[in-house]
Amino acid sequence: MASDNKQYPQGLVLPDALMREVQQRFLGLDRDHHGRERLYFDNAGGSFRLKAAVERFAEVDAIPDNAERIHATAVELQDIQARGSDDLRTILNAQGGSVYASFSASGAMFDMVRAIAENVPGTNMVTTVLEHPSAFDAMSLYAERLGRELRVAASNPVTGGIDVEEIVRLVDKDTCLLNVIYASNISGAKLDMEAIVRRAREIKPDLYILVDAVQHAPHGLIDLQKTPVDGINLAPYKFFGCRGSGLSWLSDRAAVLPHHKLAGKKPGYWDLGSSAPWQFAVLTEIVDYVCWLGGHFTDATERRALFVAGITHIELHERALLAVLLDGNANATGMREMRGVEVFLDHEDLSRRDLILGIGFERIDCTQAVVEYAKRGVTVYERVATSIYSKRMLESFGLAGTVRVSPLHCNSVADMEKFLRITQEIAALQA
Length: 431
Prior knowledge:
Layout: H1 16-24, E1 39-40, H2 51-61, H3 72-92, E2 98-102, H4 105-119, E3 124-128, H5 133-146, E4 149-153, H6 164-168, E5 175-181, H7 193-203, E6 208-212, E7 231-234, E8 246-250, H8 252-255, H9 277-294, H10 303-327, E9 328-329, E10 332-333, E11 341-344, E12 357-361, H11 366-375, E13 378-379, E14 381-384, H12 391-397, E15 401-405, H13 413-428
Parallel strand pairs: 1-13, 3-4, 3-5, 5-6, 6-7
Antiparallel strand pairs: 2-8, 7-8, 9-10, 11-12, 12-15, 14-15
Helix pairs in contact: 2-9, 3-9, 4-5, 9-10, 10-13
EC number: 2.8.1.7
GO molecular function: cysteine desulfurase activity
Organism: Variovorax paradoxus
């Protein structure tokens, strides 16, 4: 395994034999649930599912027993939850703290923002224009409710992200909370989280920091030993898992801030009501898969090391797919050279981007383009300025809309070539 994945600026595809094994582990890669052939390139909205995750969900959720008992099945469910909690820490390289299992990552973000905003002194709160509404609206709500100034970092229309300097210039000794997204779900641009955390804490050493990692977690490495934040969330349904689950981690100091909980529970306990053991079982299946993949590239046996190897090669493979989409190959013209197509926010350094593209067509709008793709068996998604999920971000870039293209590492170079040919066909409709 490369010690630094920047050694491969154009990425590195998974070997063919391994790629076949990867694809066998996912559902619906080539056909939808009705058996219709398609390319599903909307993984930023909800990723392909691991067969093992779906099967484990059904197996564990079928168990009627309450985990808060002392008999053998209850203990088994407790073990499932404990292992899943450990696996969240494996993904994040987190130590200690509290794991919070919720119905959605969005709900957890509101809860984390509330706990910090209501209990940490300060006159201002800092976030960015590229945040998901669950983070931005939570920050807006509690800033207004508590009479605090909300400071919003502007986007960079060249990189599609947020400059470190733009964020840290808004932080001062009176900032009670900094909330930042790990990677944009519009442009795919990754924020330099290590520099953001380090420089913000140089200004205020005890600053509380929250991170939305929902978009980035399936695509690249997270290391809380290098980026020690106070809360971070992810969504298994965007990480090869199942819907109806959000998983978050809170630092020891954030976890004990006053929050909604039963009075008899420990100060750092965040779950309300009976746990759903399947949430933890599914997360373990996700980590098992990434570790299995990593085992093809390292001799290490420790779970975090295997996970690091696996997620690193997922990132490298996806970077190679992104390079094909942008620059093409001997079999297909890339979108950078395709007449009638524009790639938005097209930053040259692919190591700073997750596998998300925003594109537009010269003579048809993005909504019509999505319809044309669907006619040809391709699922993509329009991000438009009329949507609450896109308006703020798109306007910061000066865009009215974009067709978001988001494959996954289980897609192949051949899939990219097929997509490029269909894109060229749609572009030709305008002539």
